[in-house]
């Protein structure tokens, strides 16, 4: 048997590295958002909103509540802990006096912050109201630093998928496109501003990549890795099921069946609900339109934004590892969502740019020498291709703000830095603390 040539090895590794890129392009081309029906049966007043928060003050929190109110929803529940009740009620009174908002209700419990418990408090209250005759059809989860730029249009587009079927399955949840607020401060007035502008671009590109990947896999096979908890809509008949509360509040995780599981998990509430939607035969539509888009301050809030961003990325990586491992235990996943499995779930475990790209350049050099091709020229073309694949997914962000093209080296650098963060997260999956916030239940 003749030895395998370097060219064959290089071709095989290239295929493994870039097949997702071509599927991504195909999915983006095929993606279509759901169109609002002419006579909708689900309207904004059928929607209740839950905003879990522990810091119930500040401009972002007020903007979240004001934005939710302007959507025309029925009721807004601020779910906090007892120590946050006073601040929440102060904000509630300020909005009532300034804007005449009367549909905000503050809920609290005694204990440590726990997003799952806070959401459950809101769901219990809505469930009681529904039992008393309220016509709630949809529950919207909003984080306390998330708002909508066009409240009048948001729910018109976000509710549209619930009126349809998707690949023969009922749409029981809707995920929406996300973007990060762009810093308007000059990027070059100081080293600090340039530093923070780079982080801001990284955060904006991070969510832009997610928007593209989610719309692509949702178009190709109807799958969605997660309905992000930053802003998500859930069908009331699903999310208000009382039986859901127990498993939602008592989820444990272990890598091997023989291990003692860790938990109950406090984060990754969105991953749990996403898996449960699929387990119950429903599906999730990713809705990305000009109006169906939320804005957040991800990455540049707080006194040390880079530290906070690193902590958030670490938490997201750990929760994604844990959730994907749980999802892959269900054989139905491969049958229902083969493209999502092949492009999102499985590649997570070996998608390290810091490893792949140097290996590809080495193999390219060896294959070029074997084929008597100029090594420098071949490696230069490969490097250009690698950089192109990293830029294409964030191109919508650059087209929206062309002046930011000069900051693209930040994004390319982060792609390799993120590989080290992901590896660190993979080595600490049993650490279930929140990361970016202290004092959370099960911290440490």
What would your notes on this structure say?
The protein has 444 residues and is α/β, with parallel strands linked by helices. The protein is 51% helix and 12% strand. Strands 1, 2, 3, 4, 5, 6, 7, 8, 9 and 10 form a ten-stranded mixed beta sheet that branches. A hairpin with a 2-residue loop joins strand 6 and strand 7. Helix 1 packs across helix 13 and helix 6 crosses helix 16. The longest helix has 31 residues. The model has no long low-confidence stretch (mean pLDDT 90).
Kindly name the structural category: alpha/beta
Largest sheet properties:
10 strands, mixed
Number of helices: 16
Distance between the termini: 55 Å
Q: What percent strand?
A: 5-15%
Number of strands: 10
Topology (elements, then pairings):
Layout lengths: L5 H25 L16 E6 L6 H12 L4 E7 L3 H15 L4 E6 L5 H17 L6 E5 L3 E3 L2 H8 L6 E2 L2 E12 L10 H31 L9 E5 H4 L2 H8 L19 H11 L3 E5 L5 E4 L8 H23 L4 H5 L1 H8 L7 H18 L4 H18 L2 H6 L7 H19 L18
Parallel strand pairs: 1-2, 1-4, 2-3, 7-9, 7-10
Antiparallel strand pairs: 4-8, 5-10, 6-7, 7-8
